[in-house]
From TrEMBL:
Pfam families: EAL (PF00563), GGDEF (PF00990). Residues 1-238 form the EAL domain. Residues 423-550 form the GGDEF domain. Residues 244-268 are annotated as: Disordered. This is Putative diguanylate cyclase/phosphodiesterase. Coiled coil: none annotated. PANTHER family: CYCLIC DI-GMP PHOSPHODIESTERASE PDEF, SIGNALING PROTEIN YKOW. Gene3D superfamilies: 3.30.70.270, EAL domain. It comes from the Bacteria. One of its GO terms (molecular function) is cyclic-guanylate-specific phosphodiesterase activity. InterPro entries: CBS_dom_sf, Cyclic-di-GMP_PDE-like, EAL_dom, EAL_sf, GGDEF_dom, Nucleotide_cyclase, Rev_trsase/Diguanyl_cyclase. CDD domains: EAL. The lineage of its organism: Bacteria, Bacillati, Actinomycetota, Actinomycetes, Pseudonocardiales.
Length: 567
């Protein structure tokens, strides 16, 4: 087997942050001279040397990466069976890291299929041991392989690799889209990040962004090659995907993101050096990595103690006598105290930190730290400002110009989120009775005033109920999503309010569908079930309100007079 390993070379494929367009990590991929790496591992399995061969490949990946001298996190692959095997098999991995000068915290171990052949308790124990030693964990092949979802919940890996087969079917298969929605929801609960593998087309990339997946790799972005493209960007691809028309290429609705972006959505890997590093050490890093905007000096526990801004540092060391004065002395002399922010903070909170800093440091990177104050990366102010601006533009484009309420996409995301969360909730569909007659009798301007007044009432009423979301989906149609204990007092407040158009009284019809956990599967199904309820409500006199439930033909009439006579 050692002779066969001599013929193995490695290609490196970057992982991109879809929000910043930059490379955040690099995966090492084994490329045997003959056949595939799977063929090589099968031969090793038959010979009884699977674990040794698997670890040897990972060690070679680490040493091969060291030849290219990059500090980005490195992803290497190990089988689940190897990790569940004897712990002493992993010893060469530690030696390879020491030889390469790469800390364990800078290595992501991607656990590969099959999982079913690795005893669960031994696999979890092996992963716990690696994590205690500082390694980060990724689970590979999720979505098409045999990775159990319960393992994701138990291990809570830093990274979940979405299988390329799922990505390829994402655009045309609503079921695959829903699968990723559910996986994204699980990962939000565990703190894991999804990496989409095998991104080949722009529609796939657009679908991933709509789902909130922010890390991806694939030939569309950058192919695997012998020399890692650590300075690559995907700004051109992203600018095309951000075209509003791109969203129309898929017919499914995205999972709602949490309010506002988080700082980790814009995370770059930190370029770190020990706090005792000299100015010469910093200069060497900046000279070999032209895209690095600064260096974070950290203590032995990985906590930031100083930050070195690229521009101010180079200005000092390249001036007259700068090199002679500073080269052999501690870089901390030319550094600043770090501006830190917690990994759970929002982008708006970050901008608040920036607003209260000294003007000369406004554009400095902020260091993102975990709960133990260890550095997990940096964020750049320009990325966050651009991201928030894009978000605000998208939000404004989605609002009704008449009522300034969000449209059906926003309500769809909220309904899908509650379905995935297993909540009990209600969806109400409200409109004005005979609205066309209002426009025909008093004019469309008066009709617009009526819609604005109704929109204001719906919005004002919602302020007392934080769980309610209101949308204006066109014309005189409004949708309301509410918790079960909120819908009755909220709806009563709206229906008790008299409305008129130029003095002509109007009435409202409200149809409400109460959805228990598991009773509906999608926003589209909710819409279909509301249609007959709405027809029932419109058949009643005065302000009307009817209530139904999925799977039941029974309709509760909460308001409204007897049925109108049919001529």
């Amino acid at each position: 087997m050692p002779a066969l390993l001599d013929d193995v070379r490695f290609a490196f494929q970057p992982l991109f942050n879809l929000n910043t367009g930059g490379v955040v990590a690099v995966e090492a991929l084994a490329r045997p001279h003959d056949g595939s790496v799977q063929d090589l591992l099968r031969m090793a399995f038959r010979a009884g040397y699977l674990a040794n061969t698997d670890v040897a490949l990972a060690c070679r990946a680490i040493r091969s990466a060291a030849d290219h001298d990059f500090t980005l996190p490195l992803h290497v692959n190990l089988l689940a069976m190897t990790i569940a095997d004897k712990s002493e098999h992993m010893a060469p991995l530690y030696a390879a890291l020491r030889d390469a000068g790469r800390p364990t915290a800078n290595l992501v171990i991607e656990v590969g299929t099959p999982y079913s052949r690795a005893p669960r308790h031994r696999l979890v124990k092996g992963l716990d041991r690696l994590r205690q030693d500082g390694f980060k964990i990724g689970l590979d092949g999720v979505g098409e392989g045999d990775a159990p979802l319960s393992l994701l919940a138990e291990v809570q890996p830093e990274v979940v690799k979405l299988d390329r087969e799922v990505v390829q079917e994402l655009v045309d298969d609503p079921a695959r889209f829903a699968l990723v929605q559910g996986l994204q929801h699980l990962c939000e609960a565990t703190g894991s990040l999804i990496v989409a593998e095998g991104v080949e087309t722009e529609p796939q990339l657009a679908a991933l962004r709509r789902l909130g997946v922010r890390l991806a790799q694939g030939n569309l972005l950058a192919a695997a090659q012998r020399r890692p493209k650590i300075n690559a960007t995907i700004s051109t691809v992203l600018s095309e995907v951000n075209d509003p028309e791109a969203a129309t290429k898929t017919t499914t609705k995205p999972l709602r993101r949490k309010p506002g972006p988080k700082v980790t959505d814009f995370l770059h890997p930190a370029t770190t050096l020990p706090e005792s590093a000299t100015s010469e050490d910093v200069r060497d890093v900046l000279a070999t990595q032209p895209t690095v905007t600064g260096v974070v000096l950290v203590d032995d526990d990985g906590r930031p103690t100083w930050t070195v801004d690229r521009n101010r540092f180079l200005l000092a060391v390249t001036g007259p006598f700068g090199h002679a004065l500073h080269a052999k002395r501690e870089a901390a002399r030319l550094a600043d105290p770090p501006r830190v922010i917690g990994a759970g903070s929002t982008a708006m909170e970050m901008l608040d930190v920036v607003a209260h800093t000294n003007r000369e440091r406004t554009n400095d990177d902020l260091v993102v730290v975990d709960d133990d104050d260890r550095c997990v990366g940096v964020v750049r102010v320009a990325d966050v400002v651009r991201g928030i601006a894009e978000m605000k533009v998208e939000q404004a484009a989605a609002l009704s110009p008449l009522t300034r309420l969000p449209g059906s996409d926003s309500i769809a995301r909220e309904v899908d989120r509650r379905i995935l969360s297993g909540e009990i909730f209600a969806v109400g569909w409200l409109d004005v009775d005979a609205f066309k007659r209002v426009n025909d009798s008093v004019g469309f301007a008066a009709g617009d005033d009526l819609i604005r007044a109704l929109g204001r009432k719906l919005t004002e009423g919602a302020t007392a109920f934080p769980g309610i979301q209101v949308g204006h989906v066109g014309g005189d149609d409004f949708l309301v999503v509410a918790g079960l204990n909120e819908v009755v007092p909220y709806a009563a407040g709206v229906l008790d309010t008299p409305f008129d158009a130029e003095g002509h009284a109007v009435t409202l019809s409200l149809a409400t569908l109460v959805c228990a956990a598991g009773s509906v599967g999608s926003y589209r199904e909710v819409s279909r079930l509301l249609a007959p309820l709405k027809e029932h409500a419109k058949s009643l006199r005065g302000n009307s309100w009817v209530l139904g439930r999925p799977g039941s033909d029974h309709v509760d009439v909460l308001r409204g007079g007897a049925h109108l006579a049919v001529s």
